[in-house]
Amino acid sequence: MAHIKLQNIIKRFGDVVAVKDFNLEVEDKEFVVFLGPSGCGKTTTLRLIAGLEHPDEGEILIDGHLVNGLSPADRDIAFVFQFYALYPHLSVYDNIAFPLKAVKVEKPEIEERVKKVAEILQLTDILNRKPSVLSGGEMQRVALGRAMVRQPKVYLLDEPMANLDAKLRIDTRAEIKRLQHEIGATTIFVTHDQVEAMSLADRIAVIHQGVLQQIGTPHEVYNKPKSLFVAGFMGMPAMNLLDVELTSREGKPALYLSHTDVQLELSPWQQSNLNANSQHNDCILGIRPEHITASRESVGRKIAADVHLIEPLGSVNILDLMLGTHQKTQEPILLRVRTHPTFNADIGETIWLDFDDDQMHLFDSGTEQAIW
Questions:
Q1: Coil, strand, or helix at residue 138?
Q2: Alpha helices (H) in the chain, listed in sequence order
Q3: Which residues are paired to 292 by β-bridges?
């Protein structure tokens, strides 16, 4: 397979900078997911690797060879588009075999390679069918088969499951993960769905406004976000982000939640991990709903909050709790908490909260980068 390296890539469309100083390495046989909202530059970056777009600045290397000037056909990559783009007049067999016929591979080898791919993708029984009678999942597998049969160095997948229903997405996701592991292919997968990213990736590259925000394993990106954007984008429901002031209480650093009477003392670990950025008083505290414990007892270091809204989701309840009211806008300051479905609460009821010290994140409000 292949090692991919992007060095200082910049891509402009008129006055719009779609990709900004992008640096990334994808290791041989690695599965990397480009994750971000629509318009963030993830598909443009994929097209730059494929050769469908050309960078204005920077270098793209595959296995150490500069490919900026090479056509897509000469880069030895396979691109699977969001739309299947199957030939409607050709059978499944001929759709899969088409790339091999185009380069005049011998017929016995075509038959062998198509048969092997069909077995892997469980398409053997439908090789004679036309695309018009296939399900969405079958068409997606045919599109994958057409890419796999070429045996390229790199697989590039641009939101290949965007048009599938929820159940089929789950099944196809598992299939793609299995296939990638089985063939050991270097793969880059584009999606805006964080569940797809978390379940598929060896590493996730989070992109926002053309800038690579963070690259890391799913665990690192979810539990150790390096920026405010990554913290807010990852997770469902999203991480709670609260304006706070870093102040001192009886000689010890503490966090004061803006527009409330809530004050949190910092643990020894949190104090020891304050860096130069913490000299700024205005910060943003982040904590995920699952890292807050709700109870009806006020024993210990706990915060009082009133129930504003209850969302019963079956396996869990999501509570929207009111901590206070913004002095200028008069909007409620809400905190989302995930509880067990047996935790019963009524709207307007006061409950008590405890934060997990080890799962609290602090961001500089100016740079939006993590302090800890």
A1: helix
A2: 42-50, 92-102, 107-120, 136-148, 166-183, 194-200, 218-223, 228-233, 268-272
A3: 355
Q: What is the pLDDT of residues 116-158, one digit of tens each?
A: 888 877 888 999 999 989 887 788 888 888 888 887 889 898 8
Q: Is the pLDDT of residue 21 over 50?
A: yes
> Which long-range contacts does 312-318 make (Cβ < 8 Å, 24+ apart)?
312/341, 313/341, 314/341, 315/341, 316/340, 316/341, 317/341, 317/343, 317/345, 318/237, 318/289
Task: Report yes or no: 280 and 366 within 8 Å, Cβ to Cβ.
Answer: yes
Cβ-proximal residues to 214 (8 Å cutoff; 6+ apart), any chain: 204, 205, 206, 220, 221, 225, 226, 227, 230
Nearest to 285 by CA among 355, 180, 198: 355
pLDDT in tens, 325-353: 887 788 889 999 999 999 988 999 999 99
Closest among 62, 65, 68, 127 to 94, alpha carbons compared: 127
Q: What is the 3-state secondary structure (H, E, C) of 268-335?
A: HHHHHCCCHHHHCCEEEEEECHHHEEEECCCCCCCEEEEEEEEEECCCCEEEEEEEEECCCCCCEEEE
- By CB atoms closer than 10 A (0-12, 13-18, 19+), residue 358 is exposed
What is the structure's pLDDT at 1?
A: 60
Distance CA 45, CA 22 (A): 9
What is the distance between the alpha carbons of residues 35 and 208, in angstroms, rounded to a whole number? Answer: 9
For position 277, what pLDDT does the model report?
45
